[in-house]
Amino acid sequence: MSTPPGQATPLVWSRRMVARHPDEEHRSATVLELFFDLCFVVAVAQAASGLHHAISDDHVADGVGGYLLVFFAIWWAWMNFTWFASAYDTDDMAYRVTTFVQIAGALVFAAGVPRALDHRDFAVCTLGYVIMRLAMVTQWLRAAQADPAHRRGCLRFAMGVTLVQIGWVARLALPDGWGTPVFLLLVVAELAVPIWAETLAHTTWHPEHIAERYGLFTIIVLGESVLAATLAIETAMAADVALVDIVTVAVGGLLTAFSMWWLYFAKDAASFLTSLRAGFVWGYGHYVIFASAAAVGAGLAVNVDHTIDDAHIGSVTAAAAFCVPVAVFLVAVWLLHWRPHHLTGWHSALAPATAVAVLLAVFAPRPVLVAGLLLAALVVLGSVRRAR
């Protein structure tokens, strides 16, 4: 029996997990999805904090490498739940409890991030990751049981995810020299599972819902970066440094964060999410957007450390810690959000040209402020063009 308009759907333990329609009207993120995102940002914050301290302590290569590895696990677990929920969110008690298990796994993972980054001890991270992923297996098995039209694809998801988790656990027993190569091999396996599964039966994800979910997570990651920078600047205010040095870093950081938000939402993503290929390219490409957005906050904190003489690196390295992720974010947004709208002429070159200018700002006297001004100028130029 259908639920009367304006009345909430009765909460039951379990209902049939049938595929939702991709053209469903007024499909938006649920409060459970928002709670899921908020808890995942704890892990993002731990990874960004580890990157900040590694760069400040002049362990740049180890810090960046460890950050990219850890962030993959955070992003991949978040993304898999997001696309599954877009197709099969039943919002019954079983679905909610399983999602809570995934959140618990994310928090376990977050607790293990410092050990993974500082000592390359991935045991706790692996435990949290496996908890998250095996919870997804139960969701796929529920969908396979209730949705005959997509059963073979759902079973492929469940089998593929399970096999890769066995690989992650087995990796812990390997000698140290095998750790990174096997990690990269398992990353390839993880990325291949959805491609393999979707060849049988496409899941019915909702383009507007997916675009909104990615946008909301981008906002949360940017907010985490702003918070990390705020705490760093608060520490700097207590130090005996020139006020102008702190102000320029703060203003540059704020201009950058505001501009990153503006540029990300300048184009509608849902309008070109019209095929499975577009979904894969856009969804997978957001690893770069999310990782660079979180790294911007870490880079800003590094520059604050350098300003108060609390970093063991030179000015160019400190500037690069901020400018490089800003430029990477800009190029990724240009490729994933702007290019699909078929921009032509000189306007299409604005974003990559600004990214190059941001990289050159590494050698400027006040690189954070220069980068912020460059992004703000790009926002103004883009707004004027659209107004005309």
Layout: helices, strands, pairs:
Blueprint: H1 31-56, H2 60-88, H3 93-119, H4 123-146, H5 151-171, H6 179-198, H7 207-237, H8 243-264, H9 276-307, H10 315-338, H11 350-360, H12 367-387
Helix pairs in contact: 1-2, 1-3, 1-7, 1-9, 2-3, 2-4, 2-9, 3-4, 4-5, 5-6, 7-8, 7-9, 8-9, 8-10, 8-12, 9-10, 10-11, 11-12
Low confidence ranges: 1-7
Question: Overall pLDDT, averaged?
Answer: 88
What share of residues is helical?
Answer: over 70%
Order of helices and strands: HHHHHHHHHHHH
What's the short story on this structure?
The chain is built from twelve helices and no strands.
Explain the overall architecture:
The longest helix is centred in the last third of the chain and has 32 residues, at 276-307. The chain contains twelve helices and no strands. The chain has two domains: 31-198, no CATH class; 207-387, I/LWEQ domain (Up-down Bundle). With 388 residues, the protein is mainly alpha-helical.
